[in-house]
Amino acid sequence: MTKKLLIVHHTPSPHTQAMFEAVLSGATDPEIEGVEVIRRAALTLSPADMLQADGYLLGTPANLGYMSGALKHAFDVCYYPCLDATRGRPFGLYLHGNEGTEGAERAVDAITTGLGWVKAAENVVVSGKPSKDDLESCWNLGATVAAQLMG
């Protein structure tokens, strides 16, 4: 049975786009079998998208020390419909910020803890232009969460 990995992202800048592409590349590595990767821009996410997924990758810039309004909106729309139905599902988070990402990490941790999701890998947090190592960490994040869904 194919598992579904949902990437919920807000990619307003070239830096977040590069991180998104690296996460996607890791999640869709040919060695990972039986996992369908679905991408949704945070502002288009529906509760059905969230409910149908078996795991999640979340990507956002840190704006003024908080997650993007787009990712917050996605959680607002999906939180109560998903509250009991998605407990125990794995997730990963990648964040880009020019300064002060702690508030964004704390907010996502609080929401995912409330949902009962399980952190599948360490958060990837990048400040400024993503380096080769940063993009490799993003690739590893995508691959790690996808691999955990394999049969």
UniProtKB/TrEMBL annotation:
InterPro entries named in the record: Flavoprotein-like_sf, FMN_Rdtase-like_dom
Domain NADPH-dependent FMN reductase-like: 48-124
Pfam families found in the cross-reference section: FMN_red
Superkingdom of origin: Bacteria
Protein's recorded name: Flavodoxin family protein
UniProt source species: Mycobacterium servetii
